[in-house]
């Protein structure tokens, strides 16, 4: 559940050093208070400390912090709390959830980011804030909001609402300033104690020692007295600020510790010389960052400022595409990026992605703006992520579909930034095209509120004469799909009818595949299916497929239209025809490595097998559907599949297994914000086989098995196989 930002905090994957007193204070606050804010200046280690506390609260901390002992010469007195004494805090039976707010440019995606942290893929038309409030409800969980300082007003309002609505919620925040709410416990996080502090352990020295040994193994302890004194001088001049110490340690590839101490003395001056009006730690951090900037070669500095366009994590392909304008070539970027990693300017995550800490990114952005590259970089950033969605769409019918889904999901924040850029720069057609293409993926991945919001904004901003009719038709289609999944059936049906009329006035287009007409037929047919009109859905899909002949795998719109036809055949009781067509679709998908259509073909085959009294075969198809939905990360589809698996188990006489599967499915239905949904025929199947399972077990045993499955579902929602033990 601790998701965002893993591996990027100061020190990366290195062991956590010191902070035993602070961890004890946080542990006590988490027991006694509901709102705790860790404050302190940039670079002081708030995020890393919060993550350590959250790991311990979740019971996943690998022991307490390492003892903060300097090399060769332990402190005269041990720390107040020895390593291993910090106990896991809680209880938080409903988990510990992490929301990284640092990539957000403003408050518009704040609630959506919190929903993502909670793994809530809301499929309703209510506001995102209402969905989050209702989902938390009576749950006992810890929610960590990291890097709140640039969104203090919006975070304050959200926190107030959540605390009022959720009586057992505990919030842990990191920010450079407190929220100022009643009941907020503010814990000011200072720098690490260093040699000049006679009352604490030399934690700064311990951190510097670890990072120095990693950067320059030849300078690892044991140290001479002179080198130990030089290391203490470095820690003192940098006032124990963790980020400043890490940046300094990275320079030991080119300097000895003694040389580093001399250079710092020249740069900062006497230890007792404060800067009026500015806390010493600000001076130390700015000195360390500025020094690192000077240490970089000109081309490294240029890449640093260009990388500041990324608000969150990025990969090498994105860095090459966005940052390789003259004088940098695409071939220049990888070695320069490796150098910035070695100098602790950029962090490399465990998954191979990269990220800059906020303070360092802000410094790069300052130079970026002074260099006049801001708009050019935003253009390049938007162009790259627009092409990413185009590529995912081109590969939708093949084995790269899963990769496309995951790339679009991972790039959610960057796609929002690209859309904001297009809308801000009066590029309505670009905004509408990107919103339309990303919108379908977002609808499938659970980002329905974002899809609807951007589609409605882009459609409102784009006058009809400013955009191509084909682009407008595609955007309306994506909005209709989104509204259907949110349960807004009447509004979606009106849009579907409008799409059908708009498509009738368009030519075939350059590909000649009838895409707009088939898209419209899919939306209109799906609207009929969800309203219980399968015959109307069949007529719509048959008419469109007859007017635009071809094979199912010619295009995405065509295969989706064939899928509506299969659903309609099942809904009208033509099981033999439905099974034959579903098996053909499934075989074609399996051959190509496609997952989305295959999942729904298996869904139909599982349903048909139930209707034809073949429950064991139904269970096979339900499991296959769940596997495909797992590949795509689709909570809504997973909930549907678990209901079918439960029905199949009940039909084979496994009442306990059915109850557990229904319970696990209920956890997924809760995550999408709906009671059980789907086409109408599924409702009768669910009711029948729930009665069957309950009748076999009795009410008490059924409820116990259901609750076991529900607990299992909550635990599995972030694991790969949601049905493994259901």
Describe it:
This protein has 726 residues and is mainly alpha-helical. 60% of the residues lie in helices and 4% in strands. The protein has 31 helices and 7 strands. The strands form 2 sheets. It has a 5-stranded parallel sheet with strand order 2-3-4-1-5, with helices on both faces. The chain has a two-stranded antiparallel ribbon with strand order 6-7. Helix 12 crosses helix 15 and helix 19 packs antiparallel against helix 20. The longest helix has 21 residues. The chain is globular, with a radius of gyration of 29 Å.
Itemize the secondary structure elements and their pairings.
Layout: H1 20-32, E1 35-39, H2 46-58, E2 96-100, H3 110-117, H4 128-136, E3 142-146, H5 152-165, E4 170-175, E5 185-188, H6 203-215, H7 225-237, H8 242-250, H9 257-268, H10 280-295, H11 298-307, H12 316-323, H13 333-342, E6 347-348, E7 354-355, H14 358-370, H15 374-394, H16 401-410, H17 412-424, H18 428-445, H19 448-461, H20 469-485, H21 489-504, H22 515-530, H23 534-547, H24 556-571, H25 575-592, H26 596-611, H27 615-632, H28 635-651, H29 655-672, H30 680-697, H31 699-716
Parallel strand pairs: 1-4, 1-5, 2-3, 3-4
Antiparallel strand pairs: 6-7
What are its keywords?
single chain, 726 residues, mainly alpha, 5-stranded parallel sheet, two-stranded antiparallel sheet, 31 helices, 4% strand, globular, disordered N terminus, disordered C terminus
The computed structural class is: mainly alpha
Quickly count the helices: 31
Low-confidence runs: 1-14, 62-90, 271-281, 718-726
Radius of gyration from the alpha-carbon trace, in angstroms: 29 Å
* Helix fraction by DSSP (H/I, runs of at least 4): 55-70%
Strand content: under 5%
Shape estimate: globular
- Tell me the quaternary state: single chain
Count of strand segments: 7
Q: Which strand order does the major sheet show?
A: 2-3-4-1-5
Q: What is the averaged pLDDT score?
A: 87
First and last CA, distance: 20 Å
Biggest sheet, in brief? 5 strands, parallel
């Amino acid at each position: 559940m601790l998701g965002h930002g893993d591996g990027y905090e100061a020190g990366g994957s290195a062991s956590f050093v010191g902070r035993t007193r602070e961890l004890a204070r946080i542990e006590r606050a988490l027991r006694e208070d509901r709102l705790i804010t860790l404050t302190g200046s940039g670079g002081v280690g708030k995020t890393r400390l919060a993550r350590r506390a959250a790991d311990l609260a979740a019971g996943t901390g690998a022991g307490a912090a390492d003892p903060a002992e300097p090399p060769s010469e332990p402190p005269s007195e041990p720390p107040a709390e020895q390593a291993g004494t910090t106990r896991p805090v809680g209880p938080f039976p409903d988990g510990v959830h992490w929301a990284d707010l640092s990539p957000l440019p403003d408050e518009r995606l704040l609630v959506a980011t919190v929903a993502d942290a909670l793994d809530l893929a809301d499929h309703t038309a209510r506001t995102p804030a209402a969905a989050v409030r209702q989902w938390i409800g009576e749950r006992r969980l810890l929610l960590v909001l990291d890097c709140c300082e640039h969104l203090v007003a919006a975070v304050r309002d959200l926190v107030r609402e959540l605390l009022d609505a959720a009586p057992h919620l505990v919030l842990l925040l990191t920010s450079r300033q407190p929220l100022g709410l009643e009941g907020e416990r503010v814990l000011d996080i200072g720098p690490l104690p260093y040699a000049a502090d006679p009352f604490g352990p030399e934690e700064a020295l311990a951190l510097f020692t670890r990072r120095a040994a990693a950067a320059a193994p030849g300078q690892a302890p044991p140290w001479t007295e002179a080198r130990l004194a030089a290391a203490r001088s470095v820690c003192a001049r940098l006032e124990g600020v963790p980020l400043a110490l890490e940046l300094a340690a990275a320079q030991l590839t080119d300097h000895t510790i003694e040389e580093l101490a001399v250079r710092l003395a020249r740069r900062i001056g006497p230890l007792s010389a404060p800067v009026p009006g500015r806390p010493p730690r600000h001076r130390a951090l700015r000195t360390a960052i500025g020094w690192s900037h000077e240490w970089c070669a000109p081309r490294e500095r240029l890449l640093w400022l260009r990388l500041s366009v990324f608000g969150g994590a990025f990969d090498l392909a994105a860095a090459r595409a966005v940052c390789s304008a003259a004088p940098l070539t695409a071939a220049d970027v990888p070695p320069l990026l490796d150098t910035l990693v070695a100098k602790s300017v950029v962090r490399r995550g465990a998954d191979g992605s990269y990220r800059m800490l906020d303070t360092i990114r802000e410094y790069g952005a300052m130079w970026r703006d002074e260099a006049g590259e801001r708009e050019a970089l935003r253009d390049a950033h938007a162009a790259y992520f627009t092409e990413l969605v185009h590529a995912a769409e081109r590969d939708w019918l093949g084995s790269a579909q899963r990769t496309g889904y995951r790339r679009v999901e991972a790039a959610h924040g960057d796609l929002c930034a690209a859309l904001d850029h297009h809308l801000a720069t009066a590029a309505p057609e670009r905004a509408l095209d990107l919103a339309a293409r990303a919108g379908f993926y977002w609808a499938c991945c659970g980002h329905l509120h974002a899809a609807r919001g951007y589609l409605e904004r882009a459609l409102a901003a784009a006058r009809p004469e400013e955009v191509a009719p084909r682009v407008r038709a595609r955007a309306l289609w994506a909005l209709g799909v989104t509204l259907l999944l949110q349960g807004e059936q009447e509004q979606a049906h009106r849009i579907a009818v409008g799409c059908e009329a708009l498509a009738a006035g368009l030519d075939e287009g350059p590909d000649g595949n009838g895409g707009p007409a088939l898209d419209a037929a899919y939306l209109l047919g799906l609207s009929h299916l969800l309203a219980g009109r399968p015959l109307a859905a069949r007529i719509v899909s048959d008419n469109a497929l007859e007017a635009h002949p071809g094979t199912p795998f010619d295009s995405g719109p065509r295969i989706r239209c064939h899928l509506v036809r299969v659903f309609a055949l099942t809904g009208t009781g033509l099981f033999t025809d439905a099974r034959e067509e579903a098996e053909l679709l499934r075989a074609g998908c399996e051959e190509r490595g496609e997952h989305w259509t295959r999942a729904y073909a298996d869904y139909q085959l599982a349903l048909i097998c139930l209707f034809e009294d073949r429950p064991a075969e139904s269970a096979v198809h339900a499991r296959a559907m769940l596997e495909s939905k797992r590949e795509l990360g689709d909570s809504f589809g997973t909930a549907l599949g678990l209901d079918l698996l439960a029905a199949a188990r009940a039909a084979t006489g496994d009442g306990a297994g059915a109850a557990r599967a229904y319970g696990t499915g209920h956890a997924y239905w809760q995550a999408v914000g709906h009671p059980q949904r789907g086409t109408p025929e599924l409702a009768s199947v669910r009711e029948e086989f729930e009665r069957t399972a309950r009748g076999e077990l009795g009410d008490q045993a059924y409820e116990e098995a259901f609750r076991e499955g529900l607990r299992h579902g909550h635990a599995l929602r972030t694991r790969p196989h949601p049905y493994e033990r259901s």
